[in-house]
Design goal:
Chain lengths: ~400, ~325
């Protein structure tokens, strides 16, 4: 591929530290579009650096001199990865709750040159972590609760689409959930850990951020399923309600596992023998789960308590599925608001929550009774007055 | 409180009584303080007699429901030769007290927000195989402090299990059982001396909601000669009052609710979700928000303003 660099300042390269692309740099490269079309020449004008981590760096940028802001993620090219992030994201069609990959490219930057992968994605102004830390705390309790429902619903819906494709995100956490806090749109992001999980095929268990990791991963179990994302989603929902992470961190996996079990109780642990065997014999005797009001130190409605309990089940197969979570009673309020075209507390209309695509519509028909915001069946239609008086 | 034996028992448990809050049909309620932690608690004191101890039943139910939202926390249950005492979380005013404070009329918004929470509490109780059997405004209390806006359900002294745990099925219907509870809000089947089940609690909620909206119920003001005759007169009045006239002037959802609860079968599980969605839809339809700001919150603001006015008057006088 032809590479051209303009205004590229030569920088001294430090070993193993990715190159920082200077502001206002322009990169010309051949990029592959989302639909795996033929590579096309594009000009990427890099602006501010907006995020960095062990994965690489994320910049704001413009493409082909357009005014639209996009996000460009720069990671080191690693041929050992069996399924690259671009490959995973390329399989995802446009979905309301998944960040859209516009194009991706391989480039060589710096001197001596190093290979990088650039992912050009749509730009979202904020991570959920920023929202929890700086915006959620200033809201009124009722408004905060509505926003928690709107955001967590979209998290489950995005996971539902992934799991229908057999893909597990494997790194669900507030930093990887991008939101637009005016429109209340939430999108899954960072598919660097995502994988197409095949049943009975082992996968690496050292995956996912520590505070959001499912107990079977701490136990070293390698035949896990997409249900590890549900545990992570439960942790995110708890953090939305609590204001900071649900679990504290321990360095050792066994200690972390013991902390989780002691906090949530041992109910149901006997049905997850791969976890039980790792807890050791210093476990407390059988305990029930404390109330979520106590665990989160805040008032939690009963329906969200039920949803949290459905996420935090040790037996992975028994955890609630994402589409079942979307149909949960916790989100009935959103269905009613959508049916009546009511605005959100901040005055903006609800984001599209119920425009399911063909893959989502192929799910269990029993879900639709609760999933869609169809006008609720009236009690008057079900029971006639005559029958009622006869019963009395 | 002038019972030396009871005072001694309380002192041994580091509890100091502050004042009496009220009386129920089976005992008295006191505000107290735990000396060790400084925690303010509520004491429910019942005098033992030949009958069954309602407070021990109540303590059992509270322990079963201990993690529920809107169920007060219980700390201790102890007894001596003549008294049973239950130490529990201190809550705020009851709906009856707040109702009187708001000139015996609640707005539609307040009633709908309370309805949603009432059905939620009952669903939780029924989930644990108990029916309450004494639903009335005096048994719904608001919290204090952080739970000020939350509705709590109390007084499980008359609660009964509707599920046979051994045979794992619903208890059978019987007639001729002794009836207990509050006649004003009791269901038709309860007043007919039938065994109460989940439908009866929900029917009582319907009467409570109508009471909070209208200010009274048609079967109030009767002049019976005895308690038994009072129940019979109320039953006759309930049967002769059509749901249309009972709910006249209010949205159809209340009429539909009364009809629905009356036609529920004895062993039938109510559709709590549909009920809550119906009230929530009505709340949104009337352009209200579920912000948990009630009529008495507005009343407090007004009294606050008048208070500040009085302060100004005092300042003027001093000057």
């Amino acid at each position: 591929m032809e590479n051209k660099e303009k205004k590229q300042k030569p920088l001294k390269r430090h070993a193993q530290v990715p190159l920082i692309i200077p502001k206002n740099s322009v990169i010309s490269t051949y990029a592959v579009g989302r639909l795996c079309s033929e590579p096309a020449l594009v000009r990427i004008e890099v602006k501010d650096l907006i995020g960095s981590g062990s994965f690489g760096r994320v910049y704001q940028a413009h493409v082909n001199e357009s005014e639209e802001i996009v996000a460009v993620k720069q990671t080191l090219y690693n041929p050992k990865l069996s399924q690259g992030e671009a490959e995973i994201m390329g399989q995802l069609k446009d979905h309301n709750n998944i960040v859209r990959l516009i194009m991706h490219s391989s480039v060589s930057l710096g001197f001596p040159s190093v290979d990088y992968v650039l992912l050009v994605m749509e730009y979202m102004p904020m991570t959920l972590l920023d929202y929890i830390n700086y915006h959620l705390t200033v809201l009124q309790p009722a408004e905060r609760l509505i926003n928690v429902r709107i955001l967590s619903y979209q998290m489950f819906r995005g996971l539902g689409y992934l799991h229908l494709l057999g893909i597990s995100h494997r790194d669900v956490k507030p930093e990887n959930l991008l939101i637009d806090n005016q429109k209340m749109v939430l999108k899954l992001s960072d598919f660097g850990s995502a994988k197409l999980l095949v049943p009975q095929e082992p996968s690496i268990s050292y995956i996912c951020s520590r505070l959001y990791r499912a107990p079977e991963l701490f136990a070293g179990y390698e035949l896990y399923s997409c249900a590890v994302d549900i545990w992570s989603a439960g942790c995110v929902l708890a953090e939305l309600l609590k204001g900071y992470p649900l679990f504290s961190s321990h360095k050792h996996d066994r200690k972390q596992l013991r902390l989780i079990v002691n906090m949530l109780g041992t109910d149901g642990l006997e049905r997850a023998p791969e976890i039980l065997s790792k807890c050791g014999n210093s476990l407390h005797p059988r305990t029930t789960r404390p109330s979520w009001n106590y665990l989160l130190n805040t008032a939690v409605p009963q329906d969200l308590c039920g949803l949290l309990n459905s996420c935090f089940i040790y037996e992975a197969a028994a955890r609630i599925s994402p589409m079942m979570a979307c149909s949960h009673g916790s989100y009935d309020e959103l269905r009613i608001m959508d049916a009546m075209a009511l605005p959100m507390p901040n005055g903006n209309p609800l984001p599209p929550l119920f425009d399911f695509n063909s893959l989502e519509m192929g799910t269990d028909p029993k879900l639709w009774v609760n999933l869609l915001p169809i006008h609720l069946s009236s009690m008057e239609d079900k029971y006639s007055v005559v029958e009622a008086f006869e019963a009395v | 409180m002038n019972d030396y034996e009871l005072e001694t028992m309380l002192r041994i448990n580091s509890i100091m009584v502050i004042r009496k809050l009220g009386s129920g049909s089976f005992g008295d309620i006191y505000e107290a303080k735990h000396m060790g932690s400084g925690l303010h608690v509520a004491l429910k004191v019942e005098r033992k007699n030949a009958g069954q101890s309602h407070l021990s039943i109540e303590s059992t139910v509270y322990n079963l429901l201990r993690h529920g939202m809107g169920i007060p926390m219980t700390y201790q249950f102890f007894s001596n030769r003549r008294h049973d005492v239950l130490v529990m979380e201190l809550l705020g005013p009851s709906l009856e007290t707040l109702f009187t404070m708001c000139n015996r009329r609640f707005s539609m918004k307040t009633v709908l927000m309370l309805a949603d929470q009432m059905v939620d509490r009952l669903e939780y109780l029924h989930l644990h195989h108990y029916v309450h059997r004494d639903i009335k405004p005096e048994n719904f209390l608001m919290g204090v402090g952080l739970t000020r806006h939350r509705l709590h359900l109390i007084d499980f002294g008359l609660s009964k299990r509707y599920w046979d745990m051994k045979e794992n099925r619903h208890v059978p219907q019987r007639r001729g059982t002794k009836w207990a509870g509050t006649a004003r809000y009791a269901s038709v089947n309860a007043l007919c001396c039938k065994v109460q089940s989940r439908r009866d609690d929900l029917e009582s909620v319907g009467y409570v909601l109508i009471y909070l909206l209208r200010g009274s119920l048609p079967w109030q003001g009767l002049l019976p000669n005895s308690k038994l005759q009072k129940a019979e007169m109320i039953l006759e009045m309930k049967l002769s009052t059509l749901p249309n006239s009972l709910c006249a002037g209010y949205p159809n959802e209340f009429y539909n609710y009364i009809i629905y609860t009356r036609q529920l079968g004895f062993e039938e599980e109510p559709d709590y979700r549909m009920i809550r969605c119906t009230f929530l839809s009505l709340l949104f339809n009337l352009k209200f928000t579920n912000d948990l700001i009630y009529d008495w919150d507005h009343a407090e603001k007004n009294s606050g303003k008048s208070g500040s006015e009085e302060d100004r008057v005092v300042v003027k006088k001093v000057v």
